[in-house]
Specification:
Number of helices: 10
Radius of gyration: 20 Å
Helix content: 40-55%
Oligomer: single chain
Strand order of the largest sheet: 5-6-4-7
Strand content: 5-15%
Structural class: alpha+beta
Order of helices and strands: HEHHEEHEHEEHEHHHH
CATH class of the largest domain: Mainly Alpha
Number of strands: 7
């Protein structure tokens, strides 16, 4: 993937990126219009998108005409913050093992559990058995504790080889480097597109111990770039509406 291959984000995605990256829980219509205009979105298009997002439950409009994220997207905002600032702990070689032990669940419940385990950055070793190195401070939700048993252990074979089998590290790194290249350009639209895309890409970073990562792993660099760009957006918005 090259920087030029990045697909433009929709108006909805652009506005969600602005709200997800905001340092305050609410942005006024004026702030959203001003910030979106810098990255190529016209005011009429922004206002139509905000109306549709409100109707769809993505955002909540207050009495003063400002917008805040819905509860569902506040949870997504927390995940993105955790992705940008993962909580690490010293790694002693142990791996987390999560075995699904409760039967009789519906297809929807099984799908929700898979999503939850993936969001915790675990990979599926085989059906019903998920794992990852135990180098993250994980908050195990009730949805996992109620239907799974958890263990710690260590692979007998090379753990780096196991990690490479569970996660496509080369593909992740290629995309991350393309996003870093895009954020280094002078094109504000391309930079914003890269920022919006990097927020989603960081959610899929397995955040493995350094011993398991290929040389020149771009995870930390992408996190730093993403955080710096979000701060630039905050500062730009303040300047435009101040």
């Amino acid at each position: 993937m090259a920087a030029s291959d990045l697909k433009p984000v929709s108006t909805r995605s652009a506005l969600l990126t602005l709200l997800l990256g905001a340092e305050v829980p609410r942005l006024s219509t004026r702030e959203l219009v001003a910030a979106a205009s810098v990255v190529g979105f016209a005011e009429p298009t922004v206002r139509v998108a905000l109306s549709r997002m409100s109707a769809a439950g993505d955002v909540v409009r207050d009495d003063d005409g400002g917008y805040r994220l819905s509860d569902r997207l506040v949870a997504r905002q927390r995940r993105q913050e955790q992705a940008a600032h993962p909580s690490l702990r010293p790694w002693d070689g142990a791996w987390e093992l999560v075995a699904v032990t409760t039967a009789g669940r519906t297809a929807s419940e099984r799908a929700d559990l898979r999503t939850t385990l993936a969001e915790l950055r675990l990979a599926e070793l085989r059906e019903g058995l998920w794992t990852r190195p135990a180098n993250l401070d994980l908050a195990w939700p009730d949805a996992v504790e109620e239907v799974c048993d958890r263990f710690t252990g260590a692979p007998v074979a090379d753990p780096a080889a196991l990690a490479a089998r569970l996660w496509d590290l080369d593909a992740w790194a290629r995309t991350a480097r393309a996003l870093l290249d895009a954020t280094a350009t002078d094109d504000p639209v391309l930079r914003f597109t890269a920022c919006a895309t990097s927020g989603r890409h960081l959610l899929t970073d397995p955040v493995l111990p350094a011993e398991m990562l290929p040389a020149d792993w771009p995870g930390d660099a992408l996190r730093a770039s993403h955080v710096a760009y979000k701060q630039w957006v905050v500062d730009m918005r303040r300047t435009m509406v101040g």
